[in-house]
Amino acid sequence: MGQNLTQKILAAHLVTGELVPGKEISVRVDQTLTQDATGTMAHLQFEAMGVPRIKTKVSVSYVDHNMLQDGFENADDHRYLQSVAARIGEWFSRPGNGICHQVHRERFAVPGDILLGSDSHTPTCGALAMIAVGVGGLDVAMAMAGVPFTLPCPKVVGVKLTGKLQPWVAGKDVILELLRRLTVKGGVGRIFEYTGEGVASLTATHRFTITNMGAELGATTSIFPSDEQTKIYLEAQGRGDVYQPMAADADATYDEVVEINLDTLEPMIACPHSPDNVKKVREVKGLKAAQASIGSCTNSSYEDLTNAARMLKGKQVSPGTSLTVTPGSKQVFEMIAREETLFDLIASGARILESSCGPCIGNGQSPPSGSVSVRSFNRNFEGRSGTKDAQVYLASVETSIATALKGEITDPRDLGIAAQPAVAPSKYLVNDSLLVAPIGPEASAKIEVVRGPNIAPLPDFTPMPDVLAQKVLLKVGDNISTDHIMPAGATILRYRSNVPKISEFVFSRVDAEFFKRAREWNGGVIVGGDNYGQGSSREHAALAPLYLGIRLVLVRSFARIHLANLINFGIVPAVFKDVADYEKVAMGDELEVKDIRAALDGAKNLTVFNKTRNVSFEIVPQTTPRGAKIINAGGLLKFTSH
Length: 642
Ligand code: MIC
Ligand code: SF4
Known about the structure:
Blueprint: H1 5-13, E1 14-16, E2 24-27, E3 31-35, H2 36-48, E4 58-62, H3 72-88, E5 91-93, H4 100-107, E6 114-117, E7 131-134, H5 137-144, E8 149-152, E9 155-162, H6 171-182, E10 190-195, H7 204-213, E11 221-223, H8 228-236, E12 256-261, E13 268-270, E14 278-280, H9 281-284, E15 291-294, H10 302-312, E16 322-325, H11 330-338, H12 341-348, E17 351-352, E18 372-375, E19 391-395, H13 397-406, E20 435-436, H14 441-445, E21 468-475, H15 482-485, H16 490-493, H17 499-502, H18 514-520, E22 525-527, H19 540-547, E23 552-555, H20 560-568, E24 572-576, E25 590-593, H21 596-601, E26 606-610, E27 615-621, H22 625-633, H23 636-641
Parallel strand pairs: 3-4, 3-6, 4-5, 6-7, 9-10, 9-12, 10-11, 15-16, 15-18, 16-17, 18-19, 21-22, 22-23, 23-24
Antiparallel strand pairs: 1-2, 2-8, 5-20, 13-14, 13-19, 21-25, 24-27, 25-26, 26-27
Helix pairs in contact: 2-3, 2-5, 6-7, 10-12, 10-13
Bound molecules: alpha-methylisocitric acid (MIC) and iron/sulfur cluster (SF4).
Iron/sulfur cluster (SF4) binds at residues 65, 99, 119, 121, 296-297, 357, 360-361, 378-379.
C-alpha cells in the first residue's frame, strides 16, 4: 500500500515505535527554532543539561516577541540569548530581522526535514513539505541536545483541494473555512496533509498562511507536498539546492478525508473571541471598525504587503480607522522599501511597525475600549490584544484593507475594483546582515554567557507526592487558552525569564484574586472543561502554576502542547472518567487524592474524594508510561538527570 507524505517523512526519521495512530513514537529532529519569549527558558534548560553544543543540523534562536525596551529586562534577555547562541553553536536572528516563522521559511526550511520549535506556529514551514511541530521550550532544548522527540503518532487527515481560488479569496479563507467546519479542537492528534488538484495553484504564500493557522485547529502540524511552487519559492530565496520533489504515493490512504472546493470559497472572517467562530464576511459587513492590522506570522509576507499597497494606492485610510502594517521580516521590509510599496502604504495613512510580533501578542497598538479591530492575524482570544472588551476579528489581508478603506467591515469584492494579486518575485532580496552564524567550538568555548538581573534561576522541581490534599483553586469552562492561564502583553512578557515574578500573573485576566489565593491556600487543583490549554506553546502556563503549588489539573480534555508541557514539569494532567463528574466539584472544595505515584506507574485511574461534598469519582491521568515516570520524578529535567 502506498504511503502518504507524512508517513514517508516520519518513517525516515523514526527512532522508536510504530507508525500507528495513538502509539508513542520518537523521531530524530533535524532543525529547531526558539523565539525570545520561550527561548530564554529553553536555553536556561539547555544549559542545565550540561551539553556543550547543539547536536542538530540547524538550530536558530530568534528575537521577535519581546521587542519593547521600556526597561532593561528584554534587552538583557536578548543579550543573554545572543551570547548563549554563540556559546552553543546556534544561529542567532537579531531583533529587527523578523518574526521567527517568516524568517525560518525564507532562510532555513528544507523539504523532508523535521523541525521542532518552541512556538505553536512552527507548522508554518509545513508549507515547504517539512514536518514542523510546535512544542514547549524544554522539548526543544532536549532536541537541541540530540534527544529524539517523543509524541503520540498522529492520525493523518487528507485535505483534498479541488478548483481554484477566485478573485479576492485567499489562503486565509481556506483555513478559516476549515476552522469553521472542524473547530479549535478538531485537529487534536492529527496532521493535515493537503492533496488534490487544487494544491498546484496555491502559491507558497497561500500555503504558509494555511499551515500557520492550522495551529488554531489544535493540529500537530500541517503539510503540503514539495512541488513546482516549492521550487519557485526556494529558488527565489537563492536556496534552490535544498529543493527535492516530495509527495504522497498515488495510492496513499488517509485516516480521515476533508474536501474543500476552492471555486466556491468566499471571503471569511473569524468573529470574537475564537478563531473558529467563522462567518462569511458578508454576514457581518457594515460593522464600524476602529482598527485594521496587517501583520503577524500568518500574513506579513512580501506578497501580503504588496497586495495591501495595491489596494491602498492613491487612497486614504478611513478617518475612523487606524491601520497598522507590520512587515514580517527585514527581507520583506527591505523589499517594500526599494519599491514604491512602502511609499503607497505610508501615503495612505498606514502606521508602519517594526518587524516583530507586535500587536499580535498585545505588545502595543491595543484597540480602543469596546471597539472592533479586523486583523490579518491568527488569534483573537479575549483580551489578547491588550484591551479586554475589544472585539477582534481575523480575516485575509484583502478583507482587512477593504475594512480600513471603508471604516467598516467590508467584503473586498464590494470595493468594485479588480483584484490584482501580487505575483511572487523571481528573486527575493537576500541580506542576512542581522543573522549571526554559529562559530566553531574553539571560539565558542571562549564566549562568556551574559545574564542580566531579570534572569531568575529555574525553580526547584520536586518528585510527585503520593497524596494530594488540596482545594480547588479555580474552576473554568471550555477552550481555556494559554493566554487565559498565562497572559502575555507588554507588562507581563518581560518576565518570561523570571518564573517567580511571572507567576503573579497566572489567570490574572480571569480572576484577579488567583495569585493571592494560590499563595494563601498553598497551591491547589485547577478544574476545567474541554480543550484546556489551547493556543500557544508557552511552557510558563505549566511552569508558573507549578511554582504556585499546582500538581493536578483536572479537565474534560486537553490541547496537545499544553498537555505535554504539564507532564514535562511534573503536573498530573487528568480527565474525568465520567464527564458529568465535572459538576461534582466547585471552587474551594477540598479534594483528596491518594496513591498517586503507584497509580501513575501502573497506568491506573485515580480516585478523587471531594471532602466538602462527601463524594468520590474517578479520573484518568493522560499520560504514557514514560510520561508517568517523568511526572513521578518531578519533571523532564529531573527525569533525564537521574
Ligand atoms: C503566541 O502566538 O501566542 C505566541 C506568543 O507566539 C506563543 C509563544 C509564547 O507564548 O511565547 C505561541 O504561539 O506558542
Ligand atoms: Fe508572534 Fe503572533 Fe506569530 Fe505568535 S502568532 S509567533 S505572537 S506573530
